[in-house]
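Methods — Computational structure assignment.
A single polypeptide chain was analysed. Its primary sequence is given first, followed by the predicted tertiary structure written as structure tokens.
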Amino acid sequence: MNGLLLDLRLGLRQIARRPGFTAAIVLSLGLGIGANSAVFSLVDATLLRPLPVHEPDRLVAIYATRPGLAAPGGFSVPDFEDYREALRGEAFTELMGYGGVPFSLAGERAAELVWAERVTEGYFTGLGVEAAAGRLFGPGDLADDPARRLAVLAHGLWRDRFGGDPAVVGRTVQLNGHDYTVVGVAEEGFSGVKFLGFAPEVWVPVGAHAAVDPGSEGMLEDRGWRALQLYGRLAPGVALESAAAAIDAVALRLAADHPEVEPGTRVHLLPGRTKTEPFFHVQLGGVLPLAAAVSMAAVLMVLLVACANVANLLLARAAHRRGEMAVRSALGGGRWRLARQLLAEALLLGAGGGLAGWVLGGWFSELFLLGNPQLDFGIDYGVAMDRRVLLFTLAVSLVTVAVFALVPALRGARLDPAAALGGTRVVDPGGRGRFGRRGRFGARGLLVAGQVALSLALLVAAGLFLRSLGRARAIDPGFRSDGLLVVAVNPGVLGYGPEDGRRLYRELHRRVAALPGVEAATLASPLPLDAFSTTVAVEPDGYEVPADESPPRVFASAVAPGYFEALGTRLERGRAFDAGDGREAPRVAVVNHAFAERFWPGAEAVGKRFRLGDPERTPVTVVGVAADGKYLTLAEAPRPYLYFPLDQRYQSQARVVLRARGDPAALIPAVEAEVRWLDPDLPVYGAKTGAAHLHRSLAAHQGLVAITGFFGVLAALLSAIGVFGVMSYFVSQRTREIGIRMALGAARRDVLRMILRRGLAQTLVGVAAGLALALAAGQRLSGLLLDVSARDPLTFTLVPLGVAAVALLAAFLPARRASRAEPLAALRHE
């Protein structure tokens, strides 16, 4: 221990004597470690971190699949009760259901929209969530009793809106215009179980919510109301496969008992240790883990480049300290003792780099989250530089020290004291002697080639994602996003029925259309590329539905007059909606081109009819055909789509859409004032420009470009610094030789060529290795690219040329300095 303390004291003294050298190493390590810490915090929060509940490894997410529906589905309250009764105590110790819903929260402050979850009995106890204040729901709390409307607050809402006051327990809050009694506050850190879903701020019993949600009467008995998602806690000793077989057997029995609503239903389980969303699992497969792997690989490459830089600096430093090490050795210091001294210095440098990485990691995390799309409600990404990230940073720092310090320390300790002190022969740790023919790829040369290879691979990935983003931006979404303003309102949360809601929409439409600076105005629910969607079952005239299939379902929007003009969506034929398409008028619709081609190919769609798959089988006449657009994602193929008049297909929430002559964001206060003039308790939310609305669909591509591009450029800069440092050291070690060559008649261009040849060789090897690495990685990236080949010729041409040019420039600067040296000055150098 005394020897270790002595080594650390000597190490502190050495690194303090050379602040520039120390700063270069700490900054290089800090950038590499900070990048890894930041990306790990994102990946950990979204994919790895277990739920902050009791025994999360025993939790499972449950979802259903039904014929004709590609997306995984939910369950009704009767479904939940049947599964719970049949399986609780056998395969599961508890089953719990939840479903998200917006609520208007009113009180001392202006009304605001919050995301709530209606939950079934056993939700909190089944998950193992504790209360931070008061209590959570228990038996008897979930009955549909107006006198017992209870609520549990999320810890964040309790802290931000109620100041963390424990006295809030027992008080009432207004939700959707009704009084709810707060019985407790959930523990800090719990924000539901839904992956990348809106973070709930309030929980209410599913039964009590039915009384305050207009239009949901009878939902507790309706098997067609499948708004619950289920979670389960496995019984001790029960494997996931056994529980899946047990619950699927119950699903088959229910499908036989209720063939009218449950035909062909199958139920599946997913591990629920972390936040889970079956939609992502089924629809996107391994895309999200692949994106996480790409991000982690990118920052690991940056760390390796930083380690190579630091190793090069330490190798050069070891060469300059040969005299010191020779004296220590002559005084009795063994090789292990000298290596231990150098490792102690490296450990101190690594600790400084780790501390810098911890600070930079927090900044990088905040920077990454700035590009998140603007949504109606907040998503709890859970990103924090917590204990898990701290342990990861510590582990990365220790591994980094081992990577960059071991070889320089062993090389620095392996020397001949007599030769070093006598000066008869100076040996370069990275080569074979000063005047002999040197190997082109000593340790430092290989490190430089590796840096070039890693930075090139990163920049190729960034180039591919950038090309993919360019293709995504070039896609016509079917509407003009410039000059648009989108503001959301939800009169349904305040109990507006269809008639009152229609009157509110018409008056709001009239008032916002009259605002100064507004060219066109409309309302829609939902908008294309919105955060939610609706579908309807259709039976077009002349289209035969196979006997063993359900009527096809088509995505649809309900829109007010002026929709196509405000969004700039082109009508190919027919007409748009007008004030005459009211509730009492004949039912009409506008279909898109893909709808017309699928159901009436080669025929005129205007004038055709289809029936809705509702109990009345409502007939609808097509009055117009709109151009195709993008409705769910920018990458989707053309899909059938329907537009209905908002008066004829009332929606309890809608987007107010304005086309402005100037800056659309400047209209937000005026629109909010108009809404509050109509109803001061009606929350206004989700205000954003059309560009911000479109950004949601581009966010994934932009995130990949930002991460790989940022770290690719960082790796390239570190590589350039590495090339510059190695070539500068190479020049300094051969200064005397260069002087002799020039004194014997060598031209300056010969010296320049000699040095550049070495830099060029290292660069070309790095470029070749980087291209091979990029080609191998490209196939793994193909699932993340939109309309771009993983071997895109333009990217694979420009990026290597750019990396080679930067590396050669870094080599040229010391070569130019050496070629301009005076022979006599070079000969005197030692």
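Note: The chain has four domains: 1-49+299-429, 56-273, 448-474+698-830, 491-682.
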